[in-house]
Amino acid sequence: MPTHDDVDAFLTETLLTADPTLDAALRAQHEAGMPAIEVAPVNAKFLHLLTRVAGARRVLEIGTLGGYSTIWLARAVGAEGRVVTIEAEPANAAVAQANLERAGVADRVEILLGRGTEVLPTLDGGEPFDLVFIDADKESNTVYLDWAARLGRPGTVIVLDNVVRGGEVADAGTADSKVLGARRGIEMLGTDPRFDATALQTLDRKGWDGIALAIVVTPAAS
Protein backbone atom coordinates (compact mmCIF):
# COMPACT_ATOMS: atom_id res chain seq x y z
CA MET A 1 0.00 0.00 0.00
CA PRO A 2 1.55 3.35 -1.00
CA THR A 3 2.38 5.74 1.83
CA HIS A 4 1.88 9.51 1.93
CA ASP A 5 5.61 9.82 1.13
CA ASP A 6 5.04 7.79 -2.04
CA VAL A 7 2.12 10.02 -3.00
CA ASP A 8 4.19 13.15 -2.33
CA ALA A 9 7.00 11.80 -4.50
CA PHE A 10 4.58 10.95 -7.31
CA LEU A 11 2.95 14.39 -7.23
CA THR A 12 6.31 16.15 -7.09
CA GLU A 13 7.80 14.15 -9.94
CA THR A 14 4.67 14.48 -12.08
CA LEU A 15 3.67 18.10 -11.54
CA LEU A 16 7.01 19.85 -11.01
CA THR A 17 9.76 20.06 -13.58
CA ALA A 18 13.38 19.60 -12.58
CA ASP A 19 14.85 22.89 -11.43
CA PRO A 20 18.60 22.96 -10.68
CA THR A 21 18.32 26.49 -9.27
CA LEU A 22 15.82 25.46 -6.62
CA ASP A 23 17.82 22.31 -5.88
CA ALA A 24 20.92 24.46 -5.38
CA ALA A 25 19.00 26.76 -3.04
CA LEU A 26 18.00 23.82 -0.86
CA ARG A 27 21.55 22.44 -0.86
CA ALA A 28 22.96 25.80 0.19
CA GLN A 29 20.40 26.06 2.96
CA HIS A 30 21.10 22.59 4.31
CA GLU A 31 24.89 22.97 4.00
CA ALA A 32 24.58 26.14 6.09
CA GLY A 33 23.06 24.05 8.86
CA MET A 34 19.54 25.46 8.65
CA PRO A 35 16.70 23.19 9.72
CA ALA A 36 14.78 21.51 6.89
CA ILE A 37 11.60 23.46 7.61
CA GLU A 38 11.11 25.06 4.21
CA VAL A 39 7.81 24.39 2.47
CA ALA A 40 7.62 21.12 0.52
CA PRO A 41 7.97 21.52 -3.27
CA VAL A 42 4.31 20.83 -4.05
CA ASN A 43 3.30 23.35 -1.39
CA ALA A 44 5.73 25.90 -2.81
CA LYS A 45 4.16 25.40 -6.24
CA PHE A 46 0.72 25.89 -4.67
CA LEU A 47 1.93 29.18 -3.17
CA HIS A 48 3.35 30.21 -6.54
CA LEU A 49 0.11 29.44 -8.36
CA LEU A 50 -1.99 31.16 -5.69
CA THR A 51 0.10 34.29 -6.12
CA ARG A 52 -0.49 34.20 -9.85
CA VAL A 53 -4.22 33.49 -9.48
CA ALA A 54 -4.50 36.48 -7.13
CA GLY A 55 -2.66 38.66 -9.66
CA ALA A 56 -0.38 39.71 -6.81
CA ARG A 57 2.37 42.18 -7.65
CA ARG A 58 3.37 43.13 -4.11
CA VAL A 59 4.02 40.21 -1.76
CA LEU A 60 5.08 40.18 1.87
CA GLU A 61 6.77 37.10 3.30
CA ILE A 62 7.37 36.77 7.03
CA GLY A 63 10.13 34.20 7.49
CA THR A 64 12.72 33.96 4.70
CA LEU A 65 14.92 31.10 5.93
CA GLY A 66 17.14 30.24 2.92
CA GLY A 67 14.93 31.88 0.33
CA TYR A 68 13.39 28.75 -1.20
CA SER A 69 9.78 29.94 -0.97
CA THR A 70 10.98 33.47 -1.71
CA ILE A 71 12.22 32.35 -5.12
CA TRP A 72 8.83 30.79 -5.90
CA LEU A 73 7.07 34.01 -4.87
CA ALA A 74 9.48 36.21 -6.83
CA ARG A 75 8.94 34.18 -9.96
CA ALA A 76 5.17 34.46 -9.48
CA VAL A 77 5.09 38.27 -9.21
CA GLY A 78 7.08 38.69 -12.41
CA ALA A 79 9.74 41.16 -13.39
CA GLU A 80 7.59 44.16 -12.48
CA GLY A 81 6.55 42.73 -9.11
CA ARG A 82 8.07 43.10 -5.67
CA VAL A 83 8.60 40.71 -2.76
CA VAL A 84 9.48 42.03 0.69
CA THR A 85 10.69 39.25 2.96
CA ILE A 86 11.57 39.45 6.65
CA GLU A 87 14.27 37.31 8.29
CA ALA A 88 15.45 37.47 11.90
CA GLU A 89 18.78 35.65 11.46
CA PRO A 90 21.61 37.43 9.56
CA ALA A 91 23.23 34.13 8.51
CA ASN A 92 19.96 32.92 7.00
CA ALA A 93 19.50 36.22 5.19
CA ALA A 94 22.98 35.95 3.67
CA VAL A 95 22.26 32.47 2.31
CA ALA A 96 18.89 33.65 1.00
CA GLN A 97 20.47 36.62 -0.76
CA ALA A 98 22.96 34.38 -2.52
CA ASN A 99 20.18 31.99 -3.53
CA LEU A 100 18.06 34.84 -4.91
CA GLU A 101 21.00 36.14 -6.93
CA ARG A 102 21.69 32.69 -8.34
CA ALA A 103 18.01 32.40 -9.29
CA GLY A 104 18.11 35.75 -11.09
CA VAL A 105 15.32 37.33 -9.00
CA ALA A 106 17.29 39.37 -6.46
CA ASP A 107 16.33 42.61 -8.22
CA ARG A 108 12.66 42.10 -7.30
CA VAL A 109 13.22 41.01 -3.68
CA GLU A 110 14.07 43.05 -0.60
CA ILE A 111 15.23 41.20 2.51
CA LEU A 112 14.54 43.10 5.73
CA LEU A 113 16.63 41.91 8.65
CA GLY A 114 15.05 41.68 12.11
CA ARG A 115 12.23 40.08 14.02
CA GLY A 116 8.89 40.37 12.30
CA THR A 117 7.30 42.04 15.30
CA GLU A 118 9.88 44.82 15.05
CA VAL A 119 10.13 45.15 11.25
CA LEU A 120 6.43 45.10 10.35
CA PRO A 121 5.59 48.47 11.97
CA THR A 122 8.24 50.10 9.76
CA LEU A 123 6.22 49.13 6.68
CA ASP A 124 3.09 50.96 7.85
CA GLY A 125 1.93 53.67 5.49
CA GLY A 126 3.39 52.13 2.36
CA GLU A 127 1.64 50.69 -0.68
CA PRO A 128 -0.56 47.76 0.40
CA PHE A 129 0.49 44.19 -0.20
CA ASP A 130 -1.59 41.90 -2.42
CA LEU A 131 -0.54 38.67 -0.71
CA VAL A 132 1.07 37.88 2.64
CA PHE A 133 2.78 34.56 3.42
CA ILE A 134 3.36 33.94 7.13
CA ASP A 135 5.90 31.23 7.98
CA ALA A 136 7.85 32.40 11.02
CA ASP A 137 7.70 31.85 14.79
CA LYS A 138 4.25 30.48 15.54
CA GLU A 139 4.03 32.23 18.90
CA SER A 140 3.62 35.55 17.04
CA ASN A 141 0.93 34.39 14.60
CA THR A 142 -1.74 36.76 15.92
CA VAL A 143 0.66 39.71 15.70
CA TYR A 144 1.57 38.78 12.14
CA LEU A 145 -2.07 38.38 11.14
CA ASP A 146 -2.90 41.78 12.58
CA TRP A 147 -0.12 43.37 10.56
CA ALA A 148 -1.12 41.44 7.44
CA ALA A 149 -4.53 43.13 7.65
CA ARG A 150 -3.01 46.52 8.40
CA LEU A 151 -0.52 46.30 5.54
CA GLY A 152 -3.03 44.81 3.11
CA ARG A 153 -6.33 45.95 1.65
CA PRO A 154 -9.74 44.39 1.07
CA GLY A 155 -8.97 41.40 -1.14
CA THR A 156 -5.44 40.81 0.12
CA VAL A 157 -4.70 37.08 0.32
CA ILE A 158 -3.11 35.70 3.48
CA VAL A 159 -1.49 32.27 3.80
CA LEU A 160 -0.61 31.08 7.31
CA ASP A 161 1.63 28.01 7.32
CA ASN A 162 1.99 25.10 9.77
CA VAL A 163 -1.37 25.44 11.47
CA VAL A 164 -2.17 21.77 12.15
CA ARG A 165 1.07 20.71 13.87
CA GLY A 166 0.56 16.96 13.49
CA GLY A 167 -3.01 17.28 14.74
CA GLU A 168 -2.01 18.92 18.00
CA VAL A 169 -3.86 22.11 17.09
CA ALA A 170 -7.08 20.34 18.14
CA ASP A 171 -5.76 19.86 21.70
CA ALA A 172 -7.31 22.66 23.74
CA GLY A 173 -5.17 21.72 26.74
CA THR A 174 -1.79 21.94 25.01
CA ALA A 175 1.08 23.73 26.71
CA ASP A 176 3.27 23.76 23.57
CA SER A 177 3.89 27.39 22.65
CA LYS A 178 4.02 26.68 18.91
CA VAL A 179 0.72 24.80 19.01
CA LEU A 180 -0.82 27.55 21.12
CA GLY A 181 0.34 30.06 18.52
CA ALA A 182 -1.26 28.01 15.77
CA ARG A 183 -4.53 27.70 17.72
CA ARG A 184 -4.68 31.40 18.49
CA GLY A 185 -4.01 32.24 14.85
CA ILE A 186 -6.88 30.03 13.71
CA GLU A 187 -9.16 31.45 16.40
CA MET A 188 -8.30 34.98 15.32
CA LEU A 189 -9.10 34.18 11.70
CA GLY A 190 -12.45 32.79 12.83
CA THR A 191 -13.48 35.73 15.00
CA ASP A 192 -11.77 38.86 13.68
CA PRO A 193 -14.17 40.60 11.25
CA ARG A 194 -11.29 41.70 9.05
CA PHE A 195 -10.82 38.14 7.76
CA ASP A 196 -12.75 35.50 5.87
CA ALA A 197 -10.81 32.26 6.21
CA THR A 198 -10.60 28.50 5.96
CA ALA A 199 -7.91 25.91 6.67
CA LEU A 200 -6.75 22.73 4.96
CA GLN A 201 -4.86 19.76 6.37
CA THR A 202 -1.83 18.65 4.38
CA LEU A 203 0.14 15.40 4.31
CA ASP A 204 3.43 15.36 2.47
CA ARG A 205 7.09 14.50 2.95
CA LYS A 206 7.15 16.74 6.01
CA GLY A 207 4.28 14.93 7.68
CA TRP A 208 0.83 15.98 8.86
CA ASP A 209 0.28 19.72 8.92
CA GLY A 210 -1.85 22.34 7.18
CA ILE A 211 -2.34 25.90 6.04
CA ALA A 212 -4.91 28.57 6.72
CA LEU A 213 -6.06 30.68 3.77
CA ALA A 214 -7.78 34.02 4.26
CA ILE A 215 -8.69 37.21 2.51
CA VAL A 216 -8.97 40.64 4.07
CA VAL A 217 -12.62 41.68 3.81
CA THR A 218 -12.70 44.98 5.68
CA PRO A 219 -10.29 47.93 5.78
CA ALA A 220 -7.42 47.62 8.23
CA ALA A 221 -7.97 48.99 11.70
CA SER A 222 -6.67 52.50 12.21
How many discrete structural domains? 1
Which band does the percent of strand residues land in? 15-25%
**How many alpha or pi helices?**
8
**Major β-sheet strand ordering:** 3-2-1-4-5-7-6
Order of helices and strands: HHHEHEHEHEHEHEE
How would you state the average pLDDT, rounded?
95
At CATH level 3, the topology is: Rossmann fold
Q: For the record, what CATH class applies?
A: Alpha Beta
Provide keyphrases for this structure.
7 strands; alpha/beta; 222 residues; 7-stranded mixed β-sheet; 20% strand
Give your account of this protein's structure.
There is one protein chain. The protein has 222 residues and is an alpha/beta fold. The protein contains eight helices and seven strands; from the N terminus they run H-H-H-E-H-E-H-E-H-E-H-E-H-E-E. It has helices at residues 4-15, 20-31, 41-53, 68-77, 90-103, 116-119, 141-150, 177-191, and strands at 58-62, 82-87, 109-113, 131-134, 157-161, 195-204, 207-216. The protein has a seven-stranded mixed β-sheet, sandwiched between helices. The model has no long low-confidence stretch (mean pLDDT 95). It comes from Microbacterium phycohabitans. GO terms for molecular function: methyltransferase activity. This is O-methyltransferase. Keywords: Methyltransferase, S-adenosyl-L-methionine, Transferase.
